[in-house]
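This section describes the prediction task in plain terms. A model, or a person checking by hand, is given the sequence of a single protein chain and must write out its three-dimensional structure as a string of C-alpha coordinates. No templates, partner chains or ligands are provided. The sample shown here is typical of the held-out split.
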Amino acid sequence: MNSPSSLDPSAVLDRILSAAAQNLRIEKILLQLGLDPSNVTFEAVVNRLVDVGLTHITLANMLALTGAVFFVATLLVRTIVPLRVIGIVSNVFFIAYGALAGSMPTFFLYLLSLPINAIRLRQMLTLVKKARVSAQGDLSMDWLRPFMTPRKYRKGDILFHKGDPANEMFLTVTGKFLVSEIGIELPPGRMMGELGFVDPKNRRTQTVECIENGDVLTITYEKLLELYFQNPEFGYYFLRLTTERLMQNISRLEGVIEAKTKDIVRLEGLIETRTAASP
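The expected answer:
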Protein backbone atom coordinates (compact mmCIF):
# COMPACT_ATOMS: atom_id res chain seq x y z
CA MET A 1 0.00 0.00 0.00
CA ASN A 2 1.31 3.43 -0.98
CA SER A 3 2.24 5.81 1.82
CA PRO A 4 0.46 9.18 2.01
CA SER A 5 3.71 10.94 1.17
CA SER A 6 3.97 9.03 -2.11
CA LEU A 7 0.57 10.41 -3.17
CA ASP A 8 1.48 14.00 -2.42
CA PRO A 9 1.37 15.95 -5.72
CA SER A 10 4.46 17.93 -4.79
CA ALA A 11 6.42 14.74 -4.13
CA VAL A 12 5.23 13.24 -7.43
CA LEU A 13 6.31 16.35 -9.32
CA ASP A 14 9.69 16.30 -7.57
CA ARG A 15 10.28 12.71 -8.67
CA ILE A 16 9.27 13.53 -12.26
CA LEU A 17 11.55 16.54 -12.26
CA SER A 18 14.46 14.51 -10.85
CA ALA A 19 14.01 11.93 -13.60
CA ALA A 20 13.78 14.62 -16.26
CA ALA A 21 16.93 16.29 -14.96
CA GLN A 22 18.86 13.24 -16.21
CA ASN A 23 18.29 14.55 -19.73
CA LEU A 24 21.25 16.63 -20.88
CA ARG A 25 19.13 19.39 -22.42
CA ILE A 26 16.98 19.78 -19.33
CA GLU A 27 20.09 19.67 -17.16
CA LYS A 28 21.56 22.51 -19.20
CA ILE A 29 18.37 24.58 -18.80
CA LEU A 30 18.42 24.03 -15.02
CA LEU A 31 22.05 25.14 -14.86
CA GLN A 32 21.18 28.30 -16.83
CA LEU A 33 18.46 29.00 -14.26
CA GLY A 34 21.06 28.67 -11.48
CA LEU A 35 19.68 25.38 -10.10
CA ASP A 36 21.51 22.20 -9.11
CA PRO A 37 20.27 19.36 -11.39
CA SER A 38 21.29 16.75 -8.81
CA ASN A 39 19.15 18.31 -6.09
CA VAL A 40 16.24 20.04 -7.74
CA THR A 41 12.64 20.30 -6.53
CA PHE A 42 9.49 21.54 -8.16
CA GLU A 43 9.13 24.28 -5.54
CA ALA A 44 12.67 25.50 -6.23
CA VAL A 45 11.97 25.66 -9.99
CA VAL A 46 8.75 27.64 -9.44
CA ASN A 47 10.43 30.07 -7.07
CA ARG A 48 13.30 30.58 -9.50
CA LEU A 49 10.93 31.23 -12.42
CA VAL A 50 8.98 33.74 -10.33
CA ASP A 51 12.22 35.52 -9.41
CA VAL A 52 13.26 35.68 -13.08
CA GLY A 53 9.80 36.93 -14.11
CA LEU A 54 9.78 39.65 -11.45
CA THR A 55 13.26 40.71 -12.48
CA HIS A 56 12.14 41.25 -16.08
CA ILE A 57 8.83 42.95 -15.30
CA THR A 58 9.33 46.52 -16.42
CA LEU A 59 6.95 49.19 -17.66
CA ALA A 60 8.24 48.76 -21.20
CA ASN A 61 7.69 44.99 -21.16
CA MET A 62 4.18 45.40 -19.71
CA LEU A 63 3.34 47.84 -22.50
CA ALA A 64 4.65 45.38 -25.09
CA LEU A 65 2.63 42.54 -23.53
CA THR A 66 -0.56 44.63 -23.52
CA GLY A 67 0.03 45.65 -27.12
CA ALA A 68 0.51 42.00 -28.07
CA VAL A 69 -2.76 41.05 -26.38
CA PHE A 70 -4.64 43.70 -28.38
CA PHE A 71 -2.87 42.60 -31.58
CA VAL A 72 -4.04 39.01 -31.06
CA ALA A 73 -7.55 40.38 -30.44
CA THR A 74 -7.55 41.96 -33.93
CA LEU A 75 -7.11 38.47 -35.40
CA LEU A 76 -10.34 37.36 -33.73
CA VAL A 77 -12.49 40.29 -34.94
CA ARG A 78 -14.50 39.85 -38.15
CA THR A 79 -15.76 43.37 -38.90
CA ILE A 80 -13.58 46.31 -39.85
CA VAL A 81 -14.64 49.01 -37.34
CA PRO A 82 -13.80 47.14 -34.11
CA LEU A 83 -10.72 45.70 -35.82
CA ARG A 84 -9.40 49.20 -36.57
CA VAL A 85 -10.25 50.45 -33.07
CA ILE A 86 -8.41 47.57 -31.40
CA GLY A 87 -5.55 47.97 -33.88
CA ILE A 88 -5.18 51.64 -32.91
CA VAL A 89 -5.04 50.72 -29.22
CA SER A 90 -2.41 48.07 -29.98
CA ASN A 91 -0.37 50.62 -31.99
CA VAL A 92 -0.39 53.06 -29.07
CA PHE A 93 0.97 50.47 -26.62
CA PHE A 94 3.70 49.33 -29.04
CA ILE A 95 4.71 52.95 -29.74
CA ALA A 96 5.06 53.54 -26.00
CA TYR A 97 7.06 50.32 -25.64
CA GLY A 98 9.40 51.30 -28.49
CA ALA A 99 9.97 54.72 -26.95
CA LEU A 100 10.72 53.39 -23.45
CA ALA A 101 12.80 50.42 -24.58
CA GLY A 102 14.73 52.45 -27.14
CA SER A 103 13.63 50.11 -29.94
CA MET A 104 13.52 52.48 -32.91
CA PRO A 105 12.33 49.92 -35.52
CA THR A 106 9.34 49.03 -33.32
CA PHE A 107 8.66 52.69 -32.53
CA PHE A 108 8.62 53.85 -36.17
CA LEU A 109 6.78 50.76 -37.47
CA TYR A 110 3.79 51.31 -35.22
CA LEU A 111 4.04 55.10 -35.45
CA LEU A 112 3.49 54.76 -39.21
CA SER A 113 0.73 52.16 -38.74
CA LEU A 114 -1.27 54.39 -36.38
CA PRO A 115 -2.41 57.04 -38.92
CA ILE A 116 -3.22 54.34 -41.49
CA ASN A 117 -5.55 52.61 -39.04
CA ALA A 118 -7.05 55.95 -38.03
CA ILE A 119 -7.71 57.01 -41.65
CA ARG A 120 -9.29 53.65 -42.55
CA LEU A 121 -11.47 53.77 -39.46
CA ARG A 122 -12.63 57.29 -40.32
CA GLN A 123 -13.40 56.24 -43.92
CA MET A 124 -15.55 53.32 -42.80
CA LEU A 125 -17.42 55.36 -40.17
CA THR A 126 -18.04 58.11 -42.74
CA LEU A 127 -19.23 55.53 -45.27
CA VAL A 128 -21.77 54.04 -42.88
CA LYS A 129 -22.92 57.48 -41.70
CA LYS A 130 -23.49 58.77 -45.23
CA ALA A 131 -25.18 55.53 -46.27
CA ARG A 132 -27.54 55.86 -43.31
CA VAL A 133 -28.36 59.48 -44.16
CA SER A 134 -28.91 58.64 -47.84
CA ALA A 135 -31.18 55.73 -46.98
CA GLN A 136 -33.34 58.14 -44.98
CA GLY A 137 -33.13 61.08 -47.39
CA ASP A 138 -32.22 61.84 -51.00
CA LEU A 139 -30.92 58.36 -51.99
CA SER A 140 -27.61 59.85 -53.15
CA MET A 141 -24.73 57.39 -53.47
CA ASP A 142 -21.94 59.98 -53.52
CA TRP A 143 -20.58 58.36 -50.36
CA LEU A 144 -19.25 55.52 -52.52
CA ARG A 145 -16.97 57.86 -54.50
CA PRO A 146 -13.78 57.19 -52.47
CA PHE A 147 -14.05 53.49 -53.40
CA MET A 148 -14.84 54.00 -57.12
CA THR A 149 -12.71 54.25 -60.28
CA PRO A 150 -13.22 56.94 -62.99
CA ARG A 151 -14.00 56.00 -66.60
CA LYS A 152 -14.84 58.00 -69.76
CA TYR A 153 -17.43 57.25 -72.48
CA ARG A 154 -18.07 58.85 -75.87
CA LYS A 155 -21.37 59.45 -77.58
CA GLY A 156 -22.64 56.19 -79.06
CA ASP A 157 -20.74 53.93 -76.66
CA ILE A 158 -22.76 51.11 -75.12
CA LEU A 159 -22.06 50.67 -71.41
CA PHE A 160 -23.81 47.30 -71.34
CA HIS A 161 -26.57 45.34 -73.10
CA LYS A 162 -29.61 43.73 -71.55
CA GLY A 163 -28.74 40.17 -70.53
CA ASP A 164 -24.98 40.80 -70.31
CA PRO A 165 -23.13 39.43 -67.27
CA ALA A 166 -23.05 42.13 -64.58
CA ASN A 167 -19.93 42.64 -62.48
CA GLU A 168 -19.81 46.39 -61.75
CA MET A 169 -21.96 49.38 -60.88
CA PHE A 170 -21.79 52.93 -62.32
CA LEU A 171 -22.34 56.45 -61.00
CA THR A 172 -22.82 59.13 -63.67
CA VAL A 173 -20.67 62.25 -63.20
CA THR A 174 -21.04 64.19 -66.47
CA GLY A 175 -22.81 63.63 -69.79
CA LYS A 176 -26.09 61.84 -70.51
CA PHE A 177 -26.95 58.16 -70.73
CA LEU A 178 -30.06 56.50 -72.17
CA VAL A 179 -31.83 53.38 -70.91
CA SER A 180 -32.80 52.11 -74.36
CA GLU A 181 -35.70 49.79 -73.52
CA ILE A 182 -37.75 52.42 -71.67
CA GLY A 183 -36.33 55.59 -73.24
CA ILE A 184 -35.25 57.23 -69.96
CA GLU A 185 -32.28 59.59 -69.83
CA LEU A 186 -29.96 59.39 -66.84
CA PRO A 187 -28.45 62.76 -65.86
CA PRO A 188 -25.30 63.22 -63.71
CA GLY A 189 -25.56 61.83 -60.20
CA ARG A 190 -27.56 58.72 -61.11
CA MET A 191 -26.60 55.14 -60.31
CA MET A 192 -26.62 52.46 -63.02
CA GLY A 193 -26.23 48.72 -62.83
CA GLU A 194 -27.01 48.36 -59.12
CA LEU A 195 -29.79 45.84 -59.80
CA GLY A 196 -27.30 43.40 -61.31
CA PHE A 197 -25.65 43.22 -57.89
CA VAL A 198 -28.80 41.83 -56.26
CA ASP A 199 -30.03 39.85 -59.28
CA PRO A 200 -29.58 36.10 -58.59
CA LYS A 201 -28.06 35.54 -62.03
CA ASN A 202 -26.04 38.81 -62.04
CA ARG A 203 -27.42 39.81 -65.44
CA ARG A 204 -28.14 43.26 -66.86
CA THR A 205 -31.85 44.11 -66.86
CA GLN A 206 -31.59 46.99 -69.39
CA THR A 207 -29.33 48.38 -72.11
CA VAL A 208 -27.57 51.70 -71.40
CA GLU A 209 -26.06 53.87 -74.14
CA CYS A 210 -23.99 57.05 -73.88
CA ILE A 211 -25.81 59.84 -75.80
CA GLU A 212 -23.49 62.67 -74.73
CA ASN A 213 -19.79 62.42 -73.90
CA GLY A 214 -19.45 61.88 -70.19
CA ASP A 215 -17.58 60.50 -67.21
CA VAL A 216 -18.69 57.82 -64.79
CA LEU A 217 -17.35 56.22 -61.63
CA THR A 218 -17.35 52.44 -61.36
CA ILE A 219 -17.13 49.95 -58.52
CA THR A 220 -17.00 46.19 -58.87
CA TYR A 221 -19.42 43.89 -57.12
CA GLU A 222 -16.43 42.21 -55.47
CA LYS A 223 -15.53 45.54 -53.84
CA LEU A 224 -19.13 46.01 -52.72
CA LEU A 225 -19.12 42.55 -51.16
CA GLU A 226 -15.83 43.37 -49.43
CA LEU A 227 -17.35 46.55 -47.97
CA TYR A 228 -20.43 44.59 -46.92
CA PHE A 229 -18.50 41.89 -45.08
CA GLN A 230 -16.23 44.48 -43.46
CA ASN A 231 -19.28 46.29 -42.09
CA PRO A 232 -22.71 44.60 -42.36
CA GLU A 233 -24.38 47.90 -41.40
CA PHE A 234 -23.21 49.34 -44.74
CA GLY A 235 -24.78 46.35 -46.52
CA TYR A 236 -28.10 46.97 -44.79
CA TYR A 237 -28.28 50.60 -45.91
CA PHE A 238 -27.08 49.73 -49.41
CA LEU A 239 -29.88 47.18 -49.79
CA ARG A 240 -32.38 49.78 -48.55
CA LEU A 241 -31.14 52.23 -51.16
CA THR A 242 -31.23 49.61 -53.91
CA THR A 243 -34.77 48.57 -52.98
CA GLU A 244 -35.95 52.18 -52.93
CA ARG A 245 -34.40 52.82 -56.34
CA LEU A 246 -36.07 49.69 -57.69
CA MET A 247 -39.44 50.93 -56.44
CA GLN A 248 -38.76 54.31 -58.07
CA ASN A 249 -37.95 52.61 -61.37
CA ILE A 250 -41.15 50.59 -61.16
CA SER A 251 -43.15 53.74 -60.41
CA ARG A 252 -41.47 55.59 -63.29
CA LEU A 253 -42.18 52.68 -65.65
CA GLU A 254 -45.81 52.59 -64.54
CA GLY A 255 -46.02 56.31 -65.30
CA VAL A 256 -44.61 55.74 -68.80
CA ILE A 257 -47.06 52.89 -69.41
CA GLU A 258 -49.96 55.00 -68.16
CA ALA A 259 -48.98 57.89 -70.45
CA LYS A 260 -48.67 55.54 -73.43
CA THR A 261 -52.05 54.02 -72.61
CA LYS A 262 -53.67 57.47 -72.51
CA ASP A 263 -52.09 58.32 -75.87
CA ILE A 264 -53.43 55.10 -77.36
CA VAL A 265 -56.92 55.74 -75.97
CA ARG A 266 -56.83 59.33 -77.26
CA LEU A 267 -55.67 58.12 -80.68
CA GLU A 268 -58.37 55.46 -80.80
CA GLY A 269 -61.00 58.08 -79.88
CA LEU A 270 -59.73 60.40 -82.60
CA ILE A 271 -59.88 57.58 -85.17
CA GLU A 272 -63.43 56.66 -84.12
CA THR A 273 -64.48 60.33 -84.36
CA ARG A 274 -63.04 60.72 -87.84
CA THR A 275 -64.54 57.41 -88.94
CA ALA A 276 -67.97 58.44 -87.73
CA ALA A 277 -67.69 61.86 -89.39
CA SER A 278 -66.65 60.47 -92.76
CA PRO A 279 -69.50 59.81 -95.32
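For orientation: The CA atoms of residues 170 and 218 lie 5 Å apart.
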